[in-house]
Amino acid sequence: xxxxxxxxxxxxxxxxxxxxxxxxxxxxxxxxxxxxxxxxxxxxxxxxxxxxxxxxxxxxxxxxxxxxxxxxxxxxxxxxxxxxxxxxxxxxxxxxxxxxxxxxxxxxxxxxxxxxxxxxxxxxxxxxxxxxxxxxxxxxxxxxxxxxxxxxxxxxxxxxxxxxxxxxxxxxxxxxxxxxxxxxxxxxxxxxxxxxxxxxxxxxxxxxxxxxxxxxxxxxxxxxxxxxxxxxxxxxxxxxxxxxxxxxxxxxxxxxxxxxxxxxxxxxxxxxxxxxxxxxxxxxxxxxxxxxxxxxxxxxxxxxxxxxxxxxxxxxxxxxxxxxxxxxxxxxxxxxxxxxxxxxxxxxxxxxxxxxxxxxxxxxxxxxxxxxxxxxxxxxxxxxxxxxxxxxxxxxxxxxxxxxxxxxxxxxxxxxxxxxxxxxxxxxxxxxxxxxxxxxxxxxxxxxxxxxx
Length: 453
Prior knowledge:
Organism: Winogradskyella immobilis
Keywords: Hydrolase, Signal
Order of helices and strands: EEEEEEEEEEEEEEEEEEEEEHEEEEEEE
Domain CBM-cenC: 20-137
Number of helices: 1
Shape: elongated
Protein name: T9SS type A sorting domain-containing protein
Signal peptide: 1-18
Radius of gyration: 29 Å
Oligomer: single chain
């Protein structure tokens, strides 16, 4: 078992604690469950139930051979406080035990303390910040085989340490709930409008791994590697599903999307992806998409990627390019895609801290020609753009039912219901900047990027 020793420290300031994660920590059920291990042995000591173990043979260097554990659910990067009462009998006098938090399966990484107990009951309190990832489940650990003698354990508790950055309220000098200010991570600004709606392509002409517009490949799993912390979640922006990806340390960082089987996509000729990033985190930021081919499904045999420097922030960016333009990878000259298994997005730049990117409409297609209706929908235009006074919105033979204009923070600044093919939007009262207009007709919704000078 990997041993990492942490220093015990006192609580300071206004830290508060969340709900108890340990079940039956006081053993008052009179049974060990859900505790497990060969040291699980609940006894009644003068009306008080506790766990009693007696090590008859010492095993130096192998304290885990006598163990008491309970599975708990912990999160990587979060700090937890563990406390418990422990003592030995007068005949033993004193002895050591190992206590902490760790993985409940291989490789059994753990954060532990080695402590000395005596015949006088002591309360021990430690704080551990989980740093071994979320790939394996967690447990509470008591390892006792290092020395012989009795060990009595009672009132075991594990709780998340709550601070101004994770207590669910806006306090301290935060600029948002649990974010911003001088201590917490910067706040994440969400896209104010959904990504542009994809055209209605025939199902046979699209291989989709994430989009509301098409049928996605089954069993798609989003993950990451080469990151200290990851937060990948599905959110909704105006009823449209969007994947929010936050990756923290080191650099570069990789989002990995796997659908569990190889798929022949030789007929697909083009790649599409929509992404949205709030702020220019660093000069030289890239978001490079790539596809991984696995002939025989025994690992990557080739890959092909696209160099994609990020220059637009606070707005949706649509990439729609021929696969022939992809310019790097492993044996990538012919963009082999007869056994595609994974999609990889690389985020990199000078800043190696936290990066958040929003993704939508990730798919391959064979560039099927748009229908007449789809072409006309796509012809909704704004001019002049940029403007100092007003934008004229024009649609070819399509009635514009509504227009909603949002600033880059997602605030609705204008709403119109013209029911006309030509609409004028007065921009004179708007400040200089970038705006997004969501234009809706019976045939669908289109998002336009508007610039006010």
